[in-house]
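Regression report. Comparing outputs from two consecutive submissions.

Submission 1:
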Amino acid sequence: MKNRALITLLISLFTSAYAEKHVVKEEEFSIQPTLEATLLPDKKIPLVIDAKEWSIFTILEILPQGSLVKKDDVLLRFDTEDFEKKLRDAGSDVDAAQLDLANAEDDFKASEKYLPLQLQAVISKDEEASEEWDYFQKTSRDSAIKEAELALKQVELRADAEREELVQLEKMYKADDLTENTEEIILKRQREMVKAMAVNLELARLAHKRTLGTTLPRLALKIQRDAQNASIARRESEQSLPRSLKLKRIALEQARVDCKRQKDNWEKLKADQQWFVIKAPADGYFYHGTIQEGRWTTGDAVKTLVAAGAVASKRPFATLIPVDATLMMEAFVEEKVQAQLKAGLSGFATAAGSPEISFPVKIEKLAGAPGIDCRYRVTLSAKYPADRPLAPGMSATAQIICYQKNAALVVPVKALHATDDGSWELEIEQAEGKTSRVAVKRGRTSGDKVEILSGLAKDQVVITPGA
């Protein structure tokens, strides 16, 4: 305990040695935060290329930053060489797509008529082949066998008849005991006839054997295969031909879609011609870059706003400020400053380069939520001096009177001591160099000073430790 008391005494002596005394007086106290602002118009027309197909526009010529223009004056011209080539190609694509569509329509119409006929022909062929096979099995094969048997029998009968006739001739002529020349000729001819019939009979037997053993089985196999192939072809055609017609219908619809798409793309591309010359939509000042959410944005995008530079479609790249636009002051402040401000507060401002000329300002709008940079937007109106011409984009410094009191008791912020219960105390000098702590109610803070609302009297001496 003795050591702790000694340490406390030493700290007190050390602090007293470096402490500063402050005699409390009534003085003017105010809170006037400084805002760095930019002069921007309350009305603006963003310039953006709203092209549907063409994406990059290369600058041929562009007016300088800040140019005063009349409505319909040309602000920018873009190079059309590549665009015109693309437009010609797109036109050719449309022509080709229309021809493809015409071919698809003709093909589908022909298929609608031909494919059913083709299917019917396959069905008829299958029916004919089936009937042929059925007839062969039931009738034709037996008829062919009978015909072969009959043909062989006829040859056998003829051969027998010729042999019998030869025998009878030989008997008749032998009985006469004399054979005349004529009779000899007849016998010779008949003998040759018998030989010939013997050959014919052998050939007939071979033909009969081949017919029954080879020709008819082969014919049966052929007719059967023809029937099977016709049946398979029918089944395949019944499946494939309707599919083929459906595919041709799909191809026709796709050709229609492609044709319409090509035509739409061409029409959109043709409509993009209007963006190759940008004209002023109103009387005003032509500014490079965009003015959005209280900021004039330049950066790398503005560096391309020169001859041969490129401008992208769909994104604002420049701004037209109408001549009747009113200049506002746009500032962005930290949270601790935003807490002190409110709409309606006034103050004064000076333009950059003219600190000797001040003019009144008033807060018109104060953002309740921070931007993505965690800062709060403040919009001020101003009565600008007539002898100091101002233009959009210029900077200015504003001081806003947030709080003002002619006679306030003020002490250094460092003199305040926070207590465990959240209240505040000051160390006051007493008689004979002694000090004591008194509870006070603090007011608002400005810089390194704080207003004391109660608990402190004029002419009291406040000790500021570590000063």
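Submission 2:
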Amino acid sequence: MANTTSANLKFTIQATGDNADTWGQITNTNLLILEQAIGGYSGVTVNATTGASLTFSNGTLSNGKDAVLKLTGTLAGNVNITIPDSVEKIYTIHDSLDHAGYTATFKTSSGTGVSLCEGHKYVVYSDGTNVELASEQKVWRAITASETVQPGAQILANTNGGAFTVTLPASPTAGQEVSIIDQGYDFNTNALTVGRNGSNIANAAADLTVNTQGAGFTLVYSGDATTGWTYKEK
């Protein structure tokens, strides 16, 4: 019988009686792959326009097998970070990308995946068909200039240097949230604009102007096109 390869971590499964004088090396490599899957870390540089494809090479160490992934780079378009279909695995992901207003999705080749938010950390799993979200650690992030944000964003908006616009995500789905706080207590002097990006805000087809000093609020997408984004706090 010939050696075979395991479905998920791509171990070399040795056939009985094969690999004379090399079985030890193959076993050691399998143990290193197991170590990588339990506690391995990779920094993954994401291409600005084409994203990244994680590798699962047969019988060798490769970045798709790591337990923890830190994504870095500056985006210039919407991108995907993909793993092969049929792989079943758990990941901890740190989205350390500069999204520059674009989206990044962690997914299987043919699945829909999980949309990532700049600065957040995630535990996700692949069931062999799609990548699903298990948990998300949200991070407050300070900005001082106009930006399009991703679902889940928690923004400390500082308009001390001048008014600007926070643009909501395009094509939101029900339950997605964006939170905003007046970091510098300057909204009364330099108002923040919340750009609706094609969706209504509080039943109105208009951008939202926030000019209350110290304002803090969360917008939740209602799932109803007429209502659009609505306030979590009343």
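Expected: both submissions complete independently.
Actual: both completed, but the second showed a warning that disappeared on reload.
Relevant detail on submission 2: The CA atoms of residues 152 and 177 lie 5 Å apart.
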